[in-house]
Amino acid sequence: MKITFQGHACFIVEGTGGSIIIDPFLRDNPLARIEPEDVRVDAVLVTHGHFDHLGDAVEISKNNNCPVIGTFELVNYCQTGGAPQGHPMHIGGSFQFPFGRVKLTQAFHGSTTDTGPVGNPCGFVVTMDGKSVYHTGDTGLFSDMSLYSGVDCALLPIGDNFTMGIEDAIRAVEFIKPKVAIPMHYNTFDVIKQDPQVFKEGAEKLGVEVRCLEPGEATEI
Ligand code: NI
Ligand code: MN
């Protein structure tokens, strides 16, 4: 499984069965190095309706004629907005797609677009080629993250203010015990400025490898 960070909470995940983009905030993302038209994927996963996650989801779905995957309410919103395909799901549900398996998890946050609320936010556990990655979405810390303990990789927000900060993200690492943790949702805006090395030092004391990726950088899990 190859994971490429595109800044903020955006990741491209590739396996032998295909590739996906999660939370494709690119055009207005000051950290992103690619544009929506550069993206070639088999699905677009969106954790919630906030602009910094929904981003360019509809455009990428159109360009690739591929589904938007997320909660029922958010997928309906995207299809009304022009996405040619959608696959609505909900928290606790999973589905086997050609590229891999997707499970929706809880996230404690909001989910509104510029026109109003679109249901609950979520996270995703994506499994490809026997490897699993848990994108927690925007969330505060919650102990049920331990339900996904043992995933190969956890993508965790560390920015604070809107989500967990570093201290709670280290506790999340304790709950999830992933093989590898990758920090996200920091340094995009002044209000979420953080030093990811502080997270790395804290999480590595727990015996978990941390990889801090630069936007555009890829890692193999
Ligand atoms: Ni958000
Ligand atoms: Mn956010």
- Overall domain count: 1
Low-confidence stretches: none
CATH architecture: 4-Layer Sandwich
Rounded to an integer in angstroms, the radius of gyration calculated over CA atoms is 16 Å
Looking across the biggest beta sheet, what order are the strands in? Answer: 6-5-4-3-2-1-16
The CATH homologous superfamily is called: Ribonuclease Z/Hydroxyacylglutathione hydrolase-like
By DSSP (H or I, 4+ residues per run), the number of helices equals 5
Strand content: 25-35%
Which class best fits the helix and strand makeup? alpha/beta
Taken in chain order, the helices and strands follow as EEEEHHEHEEEEEEEEHEHEE
Q: What about the largest sheet?
A: 7 strands, mixed
